[in-house]
Every structure is written in structure tokens, then in C-alpha cells.
């Protein structure tokens, strides 16, 4: 469905208004001539004819419909000429800039309805001009105009893809990704709607992943970037992409995930077909260690694949840290609602007991575990812990815990049911009896004296 802009003015008035706005970018001596060059010839001829008729018989002639006064071919020619003259966003207030562009887009869409190729060409020119870097003070209105164009287009329009890419690139070049971040959540839905090729969809996801990865800020931004990398990798897995390309992207995502300090959940990544195809390769084996291996396994891998770690640009220190924290989280996952000693933690992480508290604090900050340290007892009580993977073994452990909880609750209910009759009997025996030290009068009875 196309959004239609309703403007209560003739084509001549509209094209002159837009021309007058863009004339501000020209030398003052040229402005009048520039505006006059967009005077429709048919309108001028019609005006002269009407004036002659009125002068002849003295009566006012009815004005024809604006669209009929200016033939379609002439309207299109004037619009093309005007778009060709646009070199920048224009001068004036943000309100003026936005209004002029909205009106011009409306004119293009109205005049070139049914001519998608030409309409796309003209709108693409405007999008290209707006997405050029320039005065930072005009960035906000440029974003609004580009967003207006995006929303003006039908949901299936391929030009939405072009507009989105322009917005993304412009925001990234100005270090203002927060302006487009909320829209990224809708990108999968948009990609399903846009009438573009699979190659263009792949390119769009690759661009978003690259921009977010290069411009990532805090932990949340990094996780968002990683999420789009997973989306891109899944898309490649669903397409007839070359094996080498899928392998290259999969290895890059694995390396990026390891480098990102806030990423510890590798199970989702490991389940993507393009990643599973790496099984048996150094990168595939490394991911397997992080999902189900140990720091000791990592040490062995590094001994055999030191050059691979360098090729993937993965710092060994970050690899070692993640492996140890995941080992510690695994130990805690086996002891939820229980206490584990400093000695157990030191043995699992491979450090001295003096360093245990630092590692526990680190694993808590990573969001893998929650609990309470006891320096007096040299123990750590686990409240919650994250599993690396959740498979058959974890389901079995969960079942055992549920059975334990059920048994404990049954014992509590049994104790309460036994205590209830005794409590009721005690209450009946004491009902109505004076409290210790209380006499009959104070118990509410009257004593009469004759």
C-alpha cells in the first residue's frame, strides 16, 4: 500500500515552491532565473488564454484541474530537471528542509506512478545526496527525511533496501548508530518483505554485522552485534553459498565471539549448520572445547594450534580466561543451593586459594553465577549458575533436583499435618481458662455482696 501525501495546491505552485527552496543554494543573482525555469509552459499558455477570454467577454473563466493544466510528460520533465539540479540538502531551517523534500518526494511518486524504474532512479539520487556527509548541524533533519522516504515507500519496495543502507552508512559515518538501533529489530521482517535478491539480503546482513562490530560500544551493543552475526551466519547456512565463504564467515564469528568479553554462551553458535561443518577443523575443535571441554583441553589445543590462534586473531589470555570461568561455572552448576570450598574452586580453576575470591568475583560479574562468599568458612554458597549446554545430562540433573524438592516439601507438609491436631487440642484446653495470676473478677465475672 502506497502512502499518499495530500497537498492542496496545483502542480505549478508545488514545483515552484520546491524550486524556490533549492534556489537558496545558488548565488542570489541566479535565483529568480532558476525558479522561472521551472514554470510549466502549458500553465503559462493556459493562463494567457484564460486572461484573453476574460478580457474579451468580461466574464471570469473557470480554472481547470491542476493535473490537467500540466500534461504528464511536462510534469515528469520538470521533476527530472529539478532533481538533477540538487547537490545538497538545501539551506534553511530543519522545517524548511524536511518540508521541501517531502513535497518533492510526493511529486515524484505521483508523476511516476507505474514507472518504478524512473521513480527509483530519482529517489535514489535524493537518497544519495542526503546520505553524503556535510554539516553536522543538518544530520538530524537528514535522518528524518531519509526515514520519511523509507516510510513513504510501499513495504515491498526494493528502494526501502537502498534507503535503509543509506541510513545505516550515514549513522555509522557520524558515530550515531543509536539513531537506527531501534529499527534493527525489525530488519528480519523487512528482509522478508522487500522484493530484493538473496544476494542483496546477504549483503544487507553482512553490512549490519560489520557496522555493529566495528562501532560496538558497551556490552549490550556487543551482544547486539553478535546477534546479527548469528543471523547472518544462519542466512548463509540456508542459502547455496560456497563452502569456502561459509567456512570463512563461520570462523570469523567464532573468533569474534571469543574476543567479546561479554559472550560466554556458545551453544547457539555451535548449532548453526555452517559452524557444524567446521567439525574436525582447528576452529571447530576450539568451539567444542568452549561448549563442553575444559581449560586443560584448551591447553592441549593451544599446544597443537598456536598458529591457528594467531591466524584467527584470538588472544590466548582471553581464551584462557573464558575457559577457566566456564569451568568454574560448570562446578557451580553441580552445586546449586550448596556450598563449595575454596579448595575445590582452586583445583577447578587451576589457581592458588589466595586467588579464589578474585575468580569468583569475576565469574559473578560475567553473569554466569550468583552466590555468597564466606571468608570465615572459606566457601562459596551457590544460588544460581549457568550451564554451557543444556542437554540430556542437564535435564537428568534437573529432574533429580525436582525430586529432592518434592521430597523436602512432602516432609514439611507431613510435619505440619502431625503438628496441627496437637496445636488444636492445646488451644481447646486453654480456651476459657483464666490466665496465670488472673482471678475470676478479672476474667469477666461479677461478685455481688449482700
Describe this structure in words.
With 450 residues, the chain is mainly α. It has helices spanning 11-22, 28-36, 41-57, 66-69, 72-85, 94-111, 116-130, 139-152, 159-173, 181-184, 187-193, 198-214, 219-238, 243-259, 267-270, 273-276, 282-292, 295-304, 306-311, 316-333, 342-349, 356-365, 392-430; strands at 339-341, 369-374, 379-385. The longest helix is centred in the last third of the chain and has 39 residues, at 392-430. Helix 6 (94-111) runs parallel beside helix 8 (139-152) and helix 9 (159-173) runs parallel beside helix 12 (198-214). Among the domains are: 1-45 and 65-153, no CATH class; 329-403, Arc Repressor Mutant, subunit A (Orthogonal Bundle), CATH 1.10.10. It starts with 10 loop residues before the first helix and ends in a 20-residue tail after the last helix. The chain has a 3-stranded antiparallel beta sheet with strand order 1-3-2. Its main location: cytoplasm.
